[in-house]
Design goal:
The chain is an alpha/beta fold. The protein contains 15 helices and 14 strands. The strands form 4 sheets. The chain has a 5-stranded parallel β-sheet, with helices on both faces. It has a 4-stranded parallel β-sheet with strand order 8-7-6-9, with no helix packed on it. Strands 3-2-4 form a 3-stranded parallel β-sheet.
Length: about 425
């Protein structure tokens, strides 16, 4: 039996409206399924319900809206099914209508898989109800906040009630690392390259199974973008919602901290050949002409756009290549405050807001041979879009886009 407080019972009885009653019924059922004894408050919900996939999405939102339901905690919307920078007035009406319904319930339409770029980041130890695998692993690992990976509809029920079951990664004991991976034998220059962290994450996601990995040997100056790349790739290839980076992430100052004083169930040193193999599997390309470059999975940050701007160095993208960068409106607003946005647009970068480019329908140019610096994009796009993929560093992506053909610095690998 799940312990409920007086507010929980009010919602469950219908005293706070039909929408709150439905939401609390869902939360209680989930708690019972997970064996949670009680519910806890959350400070922020990030929900996927505004991603339009069909009638069920509309029916759920309309039922809540008809009951004049409102969210109880700050709630943001994740990436949607359309490019808000250039919506199609006819075919995107349903998707836009769905977003409008959630706005009326009090949701903030940030429309991004990186909500931490759209408002202040959650604090260490703060409980969340977040969807989107890359966001959840970032919150748990890099920020030290606490969230399970909440699925569509359950995430919105958490937003309405402000409550989630006390289980999974909300509990401190479940955040203990179990598997230790070492990267001491990697070429040192790899540890400065963005592609390495994507490939490393893909490998760790496959190898961790149900375990919670800790990674030892990463440089102390590893950036949050590199950690985010590792986490998003691991969440794509496996069921990972958290990792520790020894000496870097907030709950892993030492190996002993990460493992809560216990011994790892498994220890393994990763070799360079394994990472090279993963990178090749993600996409070694083919002989087809390059048609597009896609970056921003997860959505690009300000620092990633700074790196892109510097790599372009005032050069233009070749006319035969589309260069897509997915990001949020909040990041674009920051870019527009300076001259960087205009430089990128003039160079031929096309901004995609609100969606990811591996979603269907395919964007122009992504039906052919696409280059990406994202392991997540390279992992999903072949099956989602039926494309040929070349996975490489951001630097190689830029050089290829400018040249209008695949250009690879093999010394990086």
């Amino acid at each position: 039996m799940v312990q409920l407080n007086s507010a929980d019972r009010e919602m469950l009885s219908g005293a706070r409206g039909d929408g709150a009653q439905l939401a609390m019924q869902m939360i209680v059922h989930v708690a019972e399924c997970w064996g949670a004894e009680r519910l806890i408050d959350v400070a922020w919900a990030h929900v996927a319900c505004a991603y339009y996939q069909g009638q069920a999405n509309l029916d759920f939102a309309r039922r809540l809206a008809a009951a004049e339901t409102r969210v109880a905690v700050p709630t943001t919307l994740t990436a949607c099914s359309i490019n808000l920078r250039n919506p199609d007035a006819e075919s995107d009406d349903a998707a836009l209508g769905l977003i409008d319904l959630y706005e009326r319930m009090g949701c903030d339409p940030v429309m991004t898989c990186a909500p931490y770029h759209a408002r202040n980041e959650p604090r260490l130890g703060e409980h969340l109800a977040w969807c989107e695998s890359s966001a959840v692993v970032y919150a748990n690992s890099v920020l030290g906040a606490r969230s399970n990976r909440y699925v569509e509809f359950v995430d919105m029920c958490a937003a309405i009630t402000g409550r989630v079951p006390y289980c999974g990664l909300h509990r401190g004991g479940n955040r203990r690392a179990t598997v230790l991976f070492r990267v001491d034998d990697m070429p040192r220059h790899w540890l400065e390259e963005d592609w390495f962290f994507h490939a490393l994450g893909m490998w760790i996601g496959r190898q961790s199974g149900d375990g919670l990995p800790a990674v030892a040997g990463l440089p102390a100056d590893t950036t949050v973008e590199q950690l985010r790349a590792l986490g998003s790739a691991a969440a794509s290839s496996g069921s990972l919602s958290m990792f520790h980076a020894i000496g870097i992430t907030p709950e892993a100052a030492t190996v002993d901290d990460a493992f809560h004083g216990a011994a790892p169930t498994e220890q393994r040193t990763i070799n360079a050949e394994e990472i090279e193999s993963v990178a090749r599997e993600l996409g070694a390309g083919g002989k087809e002409p390059l048609t597009a470059v896609c970056v921003g999975a997860p959505h690009f940050s300000i620092d990633e756009f700074k790196a892109l701007d510097a790599l372009l160095g005032g050069r233009a993208i070749a006319e035969n290549v589309r260069f897509y960068a997915s990001t949020s409106a909040a990041v674009i607003a920051s870019l527009e405050a300076g001259k960087r946005y205009d430089r990128l647009v003039n160079a031929g970068v096309e901004f995609v807001v609100g969606r990811c480019t591996y979603y269907r329908p395919a964007m122009s140019g992504t039906e052919g041979h696409v280059m990406t610096n994202s392991a997540k994009w390279a992992y999903y796009a072949p099956s989602a879009l039926g494309v040929t993929v070349t996975f490489a560093s951001l630097a190689d992506c830029v050089e290829s886009a400018v040249a209008g053909r695949i250009v690879m610095d093999r010394e990086r690998w």
